[in-house]
Each structure stands twice: as C-alpha cells, then as structure tokens.
Amino acid sequence: MPLDHRRLRGPEESQPPALWAATAAEDEEDEEGAGAAPRDPCALRPLFARAGLLSQAQGSAYVELGSGTKVLCAAWGPREAAEPGPGRLLCEFRRAPFAGRGARGRPGAAAEREAEREAAAALREALEPAVRLGRYPRARLAVSALLLQDGGSALAAAVSAAALALADAGVEMYDLAVGCALCRPPAPAASWMLQPAEPEERRAAARLTLALLPALNQVSAVLGGGRGGPPEDWAQALRLGLDGCHRQYPVLRQSLLRAAQRRDAAAAT
Amino acid sequence: LSICSRTVEPLEYYRRFLKENCRPDGRELGEFRTTTVNIGKCLCSITTADGSALVKLGNTTVICGVKAELAAPAADSANKGYIVPNVELPSLCAERFRSGPPGEEAQAASQFIADVIENSQMIVKEDLCIASGKLAWVLYCDIICLDYDGNLLDASVFALLAALKNVQLPSVTINEETGLSEVNLKQKNPLNIRKHPVATSFAVFDDTLLIVDPTAEEEDLATGTVTIVTDEEGRLCSVHKPGGSPLTGAKLQDCITRAITRHKEVKKLIDKVIKSITPK
Hints:
The complex is a heterodimer of chains A (269) and B (280). Chain A contains five helices and nine strands, in the order H-E-E-E-E-H-E-H-E-E-H-E-E-H. Chain A has 269 residues and is of the alpha+beta class. Chain A has a five-stranded mixed β-sheet. A four-stranded antiparallel β-sheet of chain A has the order 7-6-8-9, with helices on both faces. In chain A, a hairpin with an 8-residue loop joins strand 6 and strand 7. The longest helix of chain A has 38 residues, at 231-268. The model of chain A is unreliable at 30-37 (pLDDT under 50). Chain B is an alpha+beta fold. Chain B has one domain (28-277): GHMP Kinase, N-terminal domain (Ribosomal Protein S5, domain 2), CATH 3.30.230. Chain B is 28% helix and 31% strand. Chains A and B meet through strand 3 and strand 5 of A and strand 3, strand 4, helix 2, strand 6 and strand 8 of B. Chain B: It holds the Pfam family RNase_PH_C.
C-alpha cells in the first residue's frame, strides 16, 4: 500500500479483534438470525431528522435511522463558478473511519475513495432533479455528506439528509428527495424488506436504493443490483420502496418546519 | 460619527470590546464557552466504535471514535502497542476546507495530538502490548470536526480523553500450545489511562492582549496563538506556540495559571458525565 505521507502512520497491517473471536460470535449471529421472528418487511424503522444544526454551513441536516445509521450533511448556496453554463450541483460523500462494524476503513485508501466517489455520483443523480438549477446559472451548489455510523441503508439516509440540507440552505427546489433502501435475503422465496439493518444488508442477495420526489410523485434515482428474481419481483420492490418514501416524507417536512421556526425565534431575540 | 461595522472593519469592532475587557459574544477575556460532552451510551454514541465521545465547545463540535485492532509490534519496539491519532477537517465543518487528503491544519492538529499523547504519557504504549514481539493493540483515534468555530485543539484533546475513557477492550490471551490468539468479546476491560491532559488555547491580540478560547472570527484577527496542555497534578505537559507575536515570560505564566484552573473545570465535567453513565 503506498505510504500516505499526510497522515500519521500506524502498523502496516492490523486486524479487528472480531476476526479471532470468529467461531463463538458467528454461531450466535446465526442463531439470532434464524431464531428471531422474521420482521415485518414493510415496517419502517423510526427516523429522526433535524435541520439547521451546524453554525458554519448555510444549511445542514442530521438524519438518524432506528438501525443506527447516522448521517450529517451540510449544504452551501450558490457560489460563483469559473466555467459558464448552467448551475452545477457538487456532491461529496465521506465515511468516517469508525463508521463500519468490522475493520477500520483506512481513509485515503484507493478502495475507500472509489466507494466514496460512487456514492457521491449516486447522491448527485438523486438530488439534481429536485433542485431548480435553472435559477442559478454560472453558480455551483455544494453538498457534503458525512456518514458517522453505518447501520444499513446509508445511501438512502444520505439522500434524505442532503435534500434537507439544501432546503435548509434556502436553495430553490421542486421538492425534497426522500431516499429508501430495500434488500432481499438469500433464501429462495424471500420477499423484499424495507430499510435493512447492517447484518441484513450484508447477507442480502440483492439490494436496491430509491430516491423519490414525493409531492411530484417522480422517481429521481434507482440504484441496485443482485440476484433478485423475476422482473415482477423488482417491480413489487419498487412499489414497496415508493410507499416507504411517502411514509417518511412528513417527518422530513416537519423537521424543516421546526428548523425555520427555531431560526425565526433566534432572529427575533 | 464613525460607524464601525463588524464585517467592514472587524478588528476595530473587536478592539472597542477588548478595551472594555469583554468580547462581542458577551464573554470575559478569560471565560470559556459552554462546554458539553456526550460519552458512549448517551445520545450520538457510535456503537460501531470501541469508544466514542462528542464534545461541543460553543459552536465548535468535535466527535472522536476509537477503534481497537490487533497487530504485530514494530521490530524496534517489541513491547509497545500503537496509538494512531487522525484529525480530519471535512469540508462540511467550514467553507474553507476542501474535500480530499488532509490539509495543513489537519496534519498539524494530528501531530499535536500525537505529541500530547506522548508527552503526557496518557496511555503508556507498553500497556497496549499483549505478547512481546507477537501481538499488541493498535488504537486508531479518529477525531472528526463537525463544526469549526475556533479552538479546534482544545475540543480535540477533550474529545480524545473522553473517548479513551469510554473504550472497552476485549481480553486477549495467547494459547500456549497452538500459539494462536483467542479473543473473548464478552469480557471487556477499560483502558488504563494514567494521566488526563487538558488543553487550553489562547489567542494573542495586538501583541499584548490574551483571550482564552477564541472563536473562528477571533482566530482570524489574532496575531498569534498559544496552547498549553496541563495534567491533573498541575504539571505542564506541553506548550504549543506556532509562531505569531512574541510573549513575555509573565504573560506565559498567566496562561499556565489559567490552564491549571481550566483543567479542574474539565476534570469535574468528565467525572460527572462518566458517573452518570456507569451502571450502579
């Protein structure tokens, strides 16, 4: 691995202690997975969203899913861009090194950077249809998402947080983009599940992430792959995902409203 | 009438307040912003990390996550483990930080934290060794700034201390016959933290005035900064003064005295939080 001169160096290689405790832990996990009652595939985990919490960014949002996924996102309004042309949306996605359950992600490693670039491109795809870029010619809008803890459905949470942050920054948007993730366990006749937790996502045979503009009822991005079964299954998964997005929408709108009220109260004092 | 605007002439604006011995946000020159810390089991704990803490110093928010892994010790120090701090200033904490590899400020902060750990002997590396020459713990301490409003170093040191106090390492034994290591995830032990260093930062204005806990605006206007790190016995661990206006010995002594007082405040806060989360 090439030396990263900008960070302090530790040992060449290190392994998480969970590797050495493999035998005992895996038995437990399998027991848990099989013995636990199969969860309701349409159940949405509790969602906590709060906008307007960073002081240095124009708009910010924090989204936390019940499974433990925590995403913090900041957005900056239009700034002058060097190149002429229509407005551009620049997205960035970062994982904290302690976000994953297993080994610590090495920041700066090529694999990490690839994954982050992919996620950033996916974010952009999901957000662009929601933002009125036509209103900001020659400008660039920046969105930066940081994943603090990965408990499954990370990209979906990031999409919701990024849309909230943009709205909080006062950028003109057609609608909020709401993200929802689904996965299908490897069992032969299994059905798609909404908002998988991290162990479910890891063992899944197929994963899907959707981004929807609920008020306009338009899908802005669909990402996924795997061994999902016949096409009707995928269509059914899409419908399930769209329903999940619609159900999350009121929570996100409420958090925006509360942030605006807080800002008003602070400005009045 | 001279209209002095905060955005047009920030330095003049500040000078008028400093003449009255106070600051625009209402603080005195020696007063810290409200400090809050959330450790481990409280809200915003990172369950994927072995130890975590979130520290807010006014608006400055720093989160520290510690992950422990196993590695072979280095050839020249066979009985020492590793502690690897890594300070990250992502682009979301302030507009001036760009995404990409760590910039100058992040690198300087990482080096400062490494020096503090080494100089204060907060964690002795020999404690992290499990079997000399074969296996040792590596503590990756990732400190991420979520919101940058000045005084990054104080908040980072505090977050690191709080997170390390929260770390629970699984017990590791080396099987005599097979030579393989066995990890028992059920039995966890806390780290042996020998010293509790606390950092206090000052900004120097106009080569003469010292103000404690500068905000981002004050840091921009300052002519120099000083950071003093003390431990619980009132001893000096390190003085970090990267250039800037020169200080007389007397002024430095004042800083050290204030740092010692601050240490007591911070220690009380940490003890209170830890007591509230330990199960009775």
